[in-house]
Design goal:
The structure is a homodimer. By secondary structure, chain A is α/β, with parallel strands linked by helices. Chain A folds into 2 domains: 173 residues, Rossmann fold (3-Layer(aba) Sandwich), CATH 3.40.50; 202 residues, Up-down Bundle (Dehydroquinate synthase-like, alpha domain). In chain A, 49% of the residues lie in helices and 12% in strands. Chain A is built from 14 helices and 9 strands. A 6-stranded parallel sheet of chain A has the order 2-9-6-5-3-4, with helices on both faces. In chain A, strands 7-8 form a two-stranded antiparallel ribbon. In chain A, a hairpin with a 5-residue loop joins strand 7 and strand 8. The first copy, chain A, is globular. In chain A, 57% of the residues are buried. Chains A and B meet through strand 1, strand 2, helix 7 and helix 8 of A and strand 1, strand 2, helix 7 and helix 8 of B. Strand 1 of chain A pairs antiparallel with strand 2 of chain B.
Chain lengths: 394, 394
């Protein structure tokens, strides 16, 4: 066994995991007070029976619910407007319920409620003001298994358009105080969203696992997440509302993907996702899912050029291949091939859209490449290699 | 793969791990203010060069250091007296530096400083008052690799004697805010303490791994800890001050043992450790180390009586056996045997003392057994089976 690298591992949320755990939410809110600001998407959860039951139980527990509703991905304007509306209302805690978008919106709102002014100067792409980490307590309740935003320390805000960007508000303190992960809430997630979110979680687990910033602790959690992706990915996509066990595997895997990405960073797929998501109205999970196979192939090809120096990264890809394919592999070569075959098979089975379906053309590649990077990838791809990934998925 | 059990996982400290990390302590203290109360043991660390350098750097960073010194294991009287001395002094953060004893003392002091009165009514064995979780921020800096107190939510206080007890002050909020784990601080740990602490950490990892309260998250972390015990246990014992790599493996393993015990509970060895440590002046690590082999044998024997119902627990013991012995094992039977052989070998190699060396005799067994229990063991041993464990190590 190699020597341990030095590492930092930030705090994680207080996790409450399991079918039916949503019913514990009112008593968790009461840890902080009696006035909660719910931040949700505009569609499915708000219309669900689970939401009606939750509201009834919360009101019965003496909780006053305020409500902000988000459409699509959160913009700085949405955060600023919501904070302006609720800043004087003595909110005791913020509760984000939904996919990555409402969860990140809630995270940003909880962080901006105690401050004055707009969120924009605090975003990483502007960075003219430093946040001191003060916030209103924040509870995250995911309804999809994807971004792991219930466990991360950053809120991604989007401004979509020709000069669009995706940028994070980030602080160690912004890790949600509590994550309530109830796989029953994921049962109604449509198949295409299930596939895209699942591939996002898988991308995050693999990118963090092979990351140059990985530690034994993130490795252990990433492998556990990958095991559960292997058990749950296709069944959750194929069986939808009828497979709570598969939904549980994916809910767990997504949660762990958030924990490991927060502590080990990500790779080239996420290095593309920011710019592409800023320029085009493509769901984050679709960007990740569509690029993941080609990017992993490019990484493995690049690593194989120096198999001695890159032994550990190749071994990790091979181990992920054995886990995801469920087949024992005799050699590193074989394990890496299994990984690529499994990703190809899953991407084909779920029919994840190509970039061109959202209007991306060859002429857009230069400006995407100008803003993309390798993040904490174990190997640095050059511009040509990165362009080949995009071309493979146009 | 089996369905996921529902689980809770509490917050963990903000972890700073690696050789030399002690030098980051002053800037971490400054997150909370400028007046720090150090709680240390009375011996080695205080006389070390590392302590002199730390004090110099802290003073240079504008930090005022107050200091409380503990001898042996912390008693309620020590906690009360220290809190009485420093309660009015506007301490911004408490820093515990040392083995499990100073770390738990600092944890209890940080929890009692904001309150009035004695810690006694809050102890689990008294339980006439509930702690509300308020505390002064707490930073834990272990100098031995054993209890994992840098990551647990309870402080064990001891009152040793014929009516003695060990009992915990416990709250999710008492998980240290920050853990600074610097393996250089463990280099000077004497061989006998290294062995006892290492066996304590190993006991905690295995007991949490096979616990009835285990979750996939605690399993992943426990296995990672066991891997590093396999790499570091004997080298740390044998090479002492000359093997920073082995010390790093054990420092990591001990940290993870604290995280998993806080979230999955413990087993019968720790069900004995409280009463024995209350009645007799035996170090906690020695109690655990001396009983661990016999207790694991008793557990495996009991589990083998119904191998179908106990398949998962037996598989886990076997997997731990393969990891610790470093040998691939073909069957569950074989893996369990390897585990027992490895523990026997390590306990013999380190010459951990028997209970009789501390004055425990056959006539003491009834009152020890009256107060002992199985905790979260995967199998319930009856009084006779538990007595046999003690007799094997008299």
């Amino acid at each position: 066994m190699t020597a341990l690298p030095p590492f930092a591992f930030a705090r994680i949320p207080d996790i409450h995991f399991g079918p039916g755990k949503l019913s514990a939410l009112p008593q968790l809110i009461r840890r902080y007070g009696h006035r909660a600001l719910f931040v949700t998407g505009s569609t499915s959860f708000v219309r669900s029976e689970a939401h009606a039951r939750l509201k009834e139980k919360a009101i019965g527990s003496g909780i006053e619910i305020l409500h902000a509703t988000l459409s699509g991905e959160p913009s700085p304007e949405f955060v600023d407007a919501t904070v302006a509306e609720f800043r004087g209302k003595q909110v005791d805690c913020v509760v984000g319920i939904g996919g990555g978008s409402p969860l990140d919106a809630g995270k940003a709102i909880s962080a901006m409620l105690p401050l004055e002014g707009s969120v924009v100067p605090f975003l990483e792409c502007v960075d003219t003001q430093k946040h001191d980490g003060r916030k209103i307590p924040y509870i995250a309740v995911p309804t999809s298994s994807g971004t792991g935003a219930e466990a991360t320390k950053n809120a991604v805000l989007s401004s979509v358009g020709p000069d669009g960007y995706k940028s994070s508000l980030r602080h160690d303190n912004f890790v949600p105080d509590i994550a309530v992960v109830d796989p029953e809430l994921m049962l109604s997630c449509p198949a295409d969203v299930t596939a895209a979110c699942g591939l996002d979680a898988l991308t995050q687990l693999l990118e963090a696992y092979v990351s140059s910033k990985a530690s034994p602790m993130t490795d252990a959690l990433a492998l556990s997440g990958l095991e559960h992706v292997a058990a749950g990915f296709l069944p959750a996509y194929e069986n939808g509302a009828n497979d709570l066990v598969a939904r549980s595997h994916m809910a767990y895997a997504a949660l762990l993907s958030g924990i490991v990405l927060a502590n080990a960073g990500l790779g080239v797929v996420h290095g593309f996702a920011g710019p592409i998501g800023g320029f085009f109205p493509i769901r984050h999970g679709v960007v990740c899912g569509t690029l993941f196979g080609a990017a992993t192939r490019a990484n493995i090809d690049a690593l194989r050029r120096d198999p001695v120096a890159n032994r550990i990264a190749l071994e990790k890809h091979a181990r992920a291949g054995a886990l995801l394919s469920g087949e024992a592999t005799a050699t590193i070569e074989d394990g890496c091939n299994r990984l690529l075959q499994t990703l190809d098979r899953w991407i084909a089975a779920t029919g994840i859209a190509r970039l061109s379906a959202y209007g991306v053309t060859r002429t857009d590649l230069p400006r995407i490449l100008d803003k993309s990077n390798n993040k904490n990838s174990p190997v640095t791809l050059d511009r040509q290699q990165m362009q080949a990934i995009l071309e493979a998925r146009l």
